[in-house]
């Protein structure tokens, strides 16, 4: 997946969606060429669920949660539970290519939802933060995806020495 050049200027929607799409494409870029074995290898003794594959899965479910469940009040079908709040990270049996494809499919749905709503549209679903708008969700998703891209970047360098932006 190619990263688009983000515009230097534009209206708020254009800038927010361009930066989010840039971060989403960066997930794919950072995973390019990584083997399944390495993508599922845990490196941090205190965070054994933090693998590249687990982070891709997490990002997929976070996209689903914010755009479909929170913004549109669709059913919560995420894998996490009160007993296992990190369940979406447990993907040892799922190939990285499939996780990336599912992530991209979820991002495509999020783009459609974003295009159909005003930036001021208030979430229809309940969230512990109270009422949020699409504008807030887009900003949050930029920072969430960027933060996890940093994690993937560090893991990737530790796994096979690959670095890059």
- Radius of gyration (CA) equals 16 Å
CATH superfamily: dinb family like domain
The stretches of 5 or more residues where confidence is low (pLDDT under 50) are none
CATH architecture: Up-down Bundle
What is the strand content? under 5%
What is the N-to-C succession of helices and strands?
A: HHHHH
Characterize the overall form.
globular
- Counting DSSP E segments of at least 2 residues, the number of strands comes to 0
Can you describe what's shown?
The chain is mainly alpha-helical. The chain has one domain: dinb family like domain (Four Helix Bundle (Hemerythrin (Met), subunit A)). The protein contains five helices and no strands. The radius of gyration is 16 Å and the shape is globular.
Helix-strand layout with pairing:
Blueprint: H1 12-31, H2 36-39, H3 52-72, H4 96-116, H5 134-160
Helix pairs in contact: 1-4, 1-5, 3-4, 3-5
List keywords for this structure.
Four Helix Bundle (Hemerythrin (Met), subunit A); 56% helix; mainly alpha; 165 residues
Summarize the structure.
This protein is mainly alpha-helical and 165 residues long. It has helices spanning 12-31, 36-39, 52-72, 96-116, 134-160.
């Amino acid at each position: 997946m190619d990263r688009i050049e983000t515009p230097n200027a534009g209206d708020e929607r254009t800038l927010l969606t361009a930066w989010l799409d840039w971060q989403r494409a960066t997930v794919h870029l950072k995973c390019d060429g990584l083997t399944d074995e390495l993508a599922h290898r845990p490196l941090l003794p205190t965070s054994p669920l933090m693998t590249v594959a687990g982070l891709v899965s997490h990002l997929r479910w976070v996209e689903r949660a914010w755009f479909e469940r929170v913004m549109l009040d669709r059913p919560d079908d995420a894998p996490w539970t009160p007993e296992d709040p990190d369940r979406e990270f447990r993907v040892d049996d799922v190939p990285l290519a499939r996780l990336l494809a599912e992530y991209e499919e979820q991002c495509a749905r999020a783009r459609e939802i974003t295009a159909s709503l005003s930036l001021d549209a208030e979430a229809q679903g309940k969230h512990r933060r109270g009422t949020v708008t699409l504008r807030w969700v887009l900003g949050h998703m930029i920072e969430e995806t960027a933060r996890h891209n940093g994690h993937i970047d560090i893991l990737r360098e530790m796994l096979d020495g690959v670095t890059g932006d």
